[in-house]
Amino acid sequence: MTRPRFDQRQIARACLVLLGGLLPVLLTGCQWASLHGPQSTMEVDGPVARAQLDVFMTTVYVTAGIFVVVALVLAYATLRFKARSASEEKAVPPDQGHGNPFVEVFLISASVALLVIIAIPTLKNIWYTHDVPEAERANAMDVTATGYQWWFKFEYPGEMVKLPAGGEAPLATGNELVIPAGTPVRIHLRTVDVIHSFWVPKLAGKVDMIPNRANFLWLKADKPGYFYGQCAEYCGDSHAIMRFRVVALSPSEYVKWLDNQKAPARTVTTTARAESSPLTLPALPLAQIGGPAVGAGATLAASGNFDADPLGGWKKKQQPAAGEDPALIARGRQLFREKTCLSCHTIRGHEGIGITGPELTHVGARTTIAAGVLENSPERMHQWIRDPNYFKPGNKMFNGGYTDPASGQTLINLNEQEIDALVAYLQSLK
Ligand code: HEC
Ligand SMILES: [Cu+2]
Hints:
Blueprint lengths: L7 H28 L11 H34 L5 H5 L10 H30 L10 E8 L2 E12 L5 E7 L1 E5 L4 E7 L4 E5 L3 E6 L5 E5 L5 E7 L11 E7 L1 H12 L9 H5 L37 H5 L7 H13 L29 E2 L4 E2 L2 H9 L1 H4 L9 E3 L6 E4 L2 H13 L2
Parallel strand pairs: 1-5, 4-10
Antiparallel strand pairs: 1-2, 2-3, 5-8, 6-7, 6-9, 9-10, 11-12, 13-14
Bound molecules: heme C (HEC) and copper (II) ion.
């Protein structure tokens, strides 16, 4: 038999360098890169994510133990049995025997024991994270999350609202899932197109949204907070920027939020609006558009005004706030219709039949737009409307204009002043 071609000393040295050098780098790297940060799975804020972290840590401890034992045995064997002189190095290696049955049995039982240690929390938490625990089910709430290329729609089936076109639908919002802290939330996962995946690392994760399949997950936020979410299944051009947020509010704040969301869109009071709005909207009883009818036979046509006042105090919100220009806002509302924004978006209480894009009824109250990609500021919204494809390649909002393929005519074209008006209008929808 010939001497093996590798140099054992070199290997041993390489191993030690790897161990001694890489470990601290890896550990500090983890510390900086993933232990902290808005999408860290290591800093959890809810029981589901905590259960998942427990399974992960159990596995890490067990495998780290195995690593250390194996590394020590390897280091011992390498150092203890290395060739110490040139003649030893030339010696023929001993016969490679079958081994020691006791060591084998020990290693097999140790492996089984370690797998059992990992299996216990794994199985326990598979059941726990599957659905809201029996004891908490009574006060759980349901939300439907639907994936679109490349944004998320959230619906509250327990909160029905009237639609402008008639009929009822669950309260809907886009890209920001607002929940009460401390309440278990069961999230039904749907998609209208391809497979997406719903992931809020600090609360729970992650379950796919699959066409024709009714998946769900549940989560709970320990305390009020702002949590970052992300589509976690490659779904096309703008997958990497298909984000969302979960906003957990205290129960009393949540009720306030809900009341405001259920109300139809805010209309800033203006006398100019009636004149600047060439289209007269059909008369609808108040009850049909989301609020209790005020007085028998009350219609909105009388005032040419689509605004209900379903909650006491709502009217106060109709007063222009500081910096708001009612005439500009009214112009924006008119443009929203003229520039066909309403074909893809719905503004409950105003107009809109669109389901292609996010609900905009209260878009001014969101913290971000375009699925968590842009901060919701007038500047950013202006840039978004001017060129949505710049921020999100391939997204389904038209790109700064629409040319009729048949006639070659440009039908929709927005100039800067028009965009300003649209932004003023959309920002007024708190
Ligand atoms: C062809 C359909 C379509 C039309 C027409 C359209 N949009 Fe959109 N809009 C979308 C889609 C889809 C999104 C979501 C894009 C994304 O985040 O991937 C969107 C997003 C938005 C958003 C961000 C909302 C949020 O919460 O993220 C605003 C604001 C907006 N559109 C305003 C407008 C305005 C103003 C017009 C008219 C000038 C308009 N849209 C016309 C499809 C459309
Ligand atoms: Cu996606």
